Amino acid sequence: MEEQEELFEHHRLVCDPGQEPYRIDKFLMDRLPNVTRNKVQQGIKDGFVKVNGQEVKPNYKVHPGDEIIVELPEPPRDTDVVPEDIPLNIVYEDDHLLVVNKEAGMVVHPAYNNWTGTLVNALSYHFQQLPTMEGNDGRPGLVHRIDKDTSGLLVIAKTEKAMSGLAKQFFDHSIERTYYALVWGVPENEMGTIDVHLGRSEKDRRVTVAIEDASRGRNAITHYKVLKDIRYVSLIQCNLETGRTHQIRAHMKYLGHPLFNDATYGGDQVLRGTQFSKYKSFVDNAFKLMPRQALHAKSLGFIHPITKKFIQFNSELPDDFKAVLEKWENYVQYE
Description:
Number of domains: 3
Radius of gyration: 23 Å
Largest sheet: 9 strands, mixed
Shape: globular
Helix content: 10-25%
Distance between the termini: 73 Å
Number of helices: 7
CATH topology of the largest domain: Pseudouridine synthase
CATH architecture of the largest domain: 2-Layer Sandwich
């Protein structure tokens, strides 16, 4: 007889007393991080999901009081962070906080598929006893984050007092955050505000989509200004009022101007310009020069949680961003 594979409990969920009948695959997608509908459905078919101790089908509808257990063949990761000797680009540091300039390609915190090599692994090596925000286990020091392939400034809390003071400013939307983005095309209005709710796509939970129904999603506000019109692309300054996942990337796509080389939001195609092979070849070379979305967290301003003085930090555009910008300006000048 074939030996039964050992399974380890990863999640245990109990449905609320007021739970409406809802397909279990959709229910789990809404509540589990980093999963796709295909993964959830496959897991249910493989018997990794049990409701009240019994295996179910993907179309099973959950009911009030149902106990749902998700078990997988590998043991769950704990929230202990492995310290790693990774160099940090520290822009500012005092006894309470530090500001780092993150390189593109570095993940901010350990998570599914990226348990090591992250900014948090580096912070744990260089600093002991960093505080952890409530509900943010395994992410010491973090009060906000930026995407893996976005470069730029992040503030890190070194003490509990600094963490609570910074977290309140983020909650109140009083932190000044300026991003530079290179987008396809030139927005019709030189400056404006995008005030459109955002939520996770039902087709792919890793993607954020604009939701015009204000009763759904989460409110998201981005102020933008065109800094440079380069005919086929433009350099945009974005200031965040809220800080939703992929906010600028999703909002600029909604506006019809996806970020240059943003594969997730369709910016890795030739979206403006001619069909000539010479032009396509130029764009391909620009993509190779900057193999990521053209987004940089350029400046950060906030009230120091201890001294109560307003402090602001600015950063240079990284080399790949500068090189692509210069390439486009030269192309348009000599076209």
